[in-house]
Amino acid sequence: MKKLFKNATVVLPTGSVETSVLIDGAKIVDIDASITSVVDEIVDCTGLHLLPGVIDDQVHFREPGLTHKEDLDHASRACAKGGVTSFLEMPNTIPNTITQSILEEKLATASRSSLVNYGFYIGATEDNVDVLKHATRTPGIKIFIGSSTGNLLVDEQAALEKIFAESTLTICAHCEDESTVRANAAKYADSTDVASHSLVRNHEAALIATKRAIDLADRHNHRFHVLHVSTAQEAELLASASDLITSEVCPHHLFFNVGDYERLGSLVKMNPSIKDQADNVALWDALVAGAIDIVATDHAPHTLDEKQQPYPNCPSGLPAVENSLALMLNQIASGKCTIEEVVKWMCSGPARIWDIKNKGQIKVGFDADLTLVDLKLEQTVLNENQETKCGWTPWHGQSLTGWPVATWVMGHEAFRLVDGVAWFNQSTLGREIEYSH
Ligand code: DOR
Q1: Which of 306, 309, 420, 428 could make an S-S bridge to 313, C-beta 3.0–4.6 Å?
Q2: How far is Cα 318 from Cα 72, in angstroms, rounded to an integer?
């Protein structure tokens, strides 16, 4: 099936150009303004921008084991609506993804239910280094150097040394220092104010753990990716980090700060915690300067009932995949970045970091994972319109300018906005992501 995307402003690796893109089946086969081939479908993209599909390298889709919060069906629809055509999912599901066979069961489930392309990390424990050494069909290894939702934690120095010394896949980590967090938690043990969360999981906790992980990576000459950077101090450290190190920032750390607890309460309780306005500014500047490489969501849904439990029992995490691209496009509208930067942070950057084959760029021979966006479209984020199973968003009521209006996954149209309403093609499925390692 051949489709021609005509008259789009196409964001190519070399910059944006008005041209046409021809796809045949799941591949991009030609990029040229004067294509005249006979095709099955012409997609008129006048006035719109055609981007490579977004790759979100940090999501928690809760399947198996926690499907009352989220599942692959809802989450992958949320992805398609948000312009995300591929995701990499974290191992803190139940059971934890800590063996090759559990990883392959997740891949099998996704092959039956995910509307978009999928990949799953292998989780590290104190004693599964043999699994990590031989893991296949995965982007890399996830370590919780600080504990978060679930029971995965590797805090013992000897275990960390062994993982960095003996495994070869790229490692990523949740960096919050466990001892610092525990000591702070004891200090604020009597607090029922959710704002205490940012005092417990403070700047120091994040910085100590990120320094510790970078030190491990450098000494063992191991590729390492810092997940969800949340402080100005980490951003400063990353500016002079070695080539082994890459990092990411999440929309909630860019756009929320401790001032938002009053309005949003536990809805913005996350690990790492949200920090100060000065951190928002420093993180944005580090992203623009290239000290931080990419943007990912850490989409971590919990039900509203769970979130409404009093602090400290309310769980940490918020959903974001269906609004992350719009949140970034909205920054273009206010002159803070360009569309080419957004594509670098959300499409080509993640593909490079995780050795993802044939994705992240609009290029002949690459997969036809495409997101069509309208940079002028203004819409308000509403709880009632969310596809995520948890049914809420911390951005409820916020108006954003710049939205995905259609998404193609391996050449199949997966989502289209029709008269402001999301339409999904439930008869297509995404594919397993392939890696060059
Ligand atoms: O706030 C968080 N929630 N941070 C994480 O790292 C994990 C996530 C979850 O799985 O709920």
Answers
A1: 309
A2: 16
